[in-house]
Amino acid sequence: xxxxxxxxxxxxxxxxxxxxxxxxxxxxxxxxxxxxxxxxxxxxxxxxxxxxxxxxxxxxxxxxxxxxxxxxxxxxxxxxxxxxxxxxxxxxxxxxxxxxxxxxxxxxxxxxxxxxxxxxxxxxxxxxxxxxxxxxxxxxxxxxxxxxxxxxxxxxxxxxxxxxxxxxxxxxxxxxxxxxxxxxxxxxxxxxxxxxxxxxxxxxxxxxxxxxxxxxxxxxxxxxxxxxxxxxxxxxxxxxxxxxxxxxxxxxxxxxxxxxxxxxxxxxxxxxxxxxxxxxxxxxxxxxxxxxxxxxxxxxxxx
Length: 303
Hints:
alpha/beta, Rossmann fold, 4-stranded parallel beta sheet
């Protein structure tokens, strides 16, 4: 089948099955193109909860589909790329989190949304890369276990120096391997382009950037800037949407290594098969879901 044939069938099935297709900004271009909504992980999960659709097709990685299942338990959450996990999310284990809680009894746990439902269930708050600084600054507690991303946690600690933050030793395999030398080299090639990087990059990289922000914040920066050229320091999939919204602007990927292989597992063919078979379905056991939802909702109270 040609891609156009896949899309025609998908369009018929999404109407028949009252389905909403959600795609993360890091997905393949053709997957973003067929999605009803493209955005970051939490925005998509909230869209799933707010939608009147009966079926949600989540094009992302597993923890994102889990978050949708937590916030929209009455809906069927289809996850076309069933083996698309997140190595950083896998670096945090619920049992190990409980051990850290004993080690630091006065600390609350702030879990990045890039974690499993089980980890969220033993955490006090969730956060996103867009709101981590604001949340940590606003919550009343002064001692925090921040997990699983040590780089985002380091960035938060720098912005909120009055709080004690214990950093979990996890990282995003895509962003963590960006080298400061890559930033220096591309700035020399394009001196008139600001460097925009994700806080999942290492501190020595973020220090060289002109702007540090989440995927949604990088997009907002570009959309609201009069500059004509930009160096993008996050997963390459975001460039599709940036170019679509800003056809007169030029974008350079900071380094060739900014590719998430798990995000690229979703294909148009897999989306079609998922709608045809109504599989695979992501569900979260109720005892975990209820506790994980509390951590997500507590985040929203401080934003």
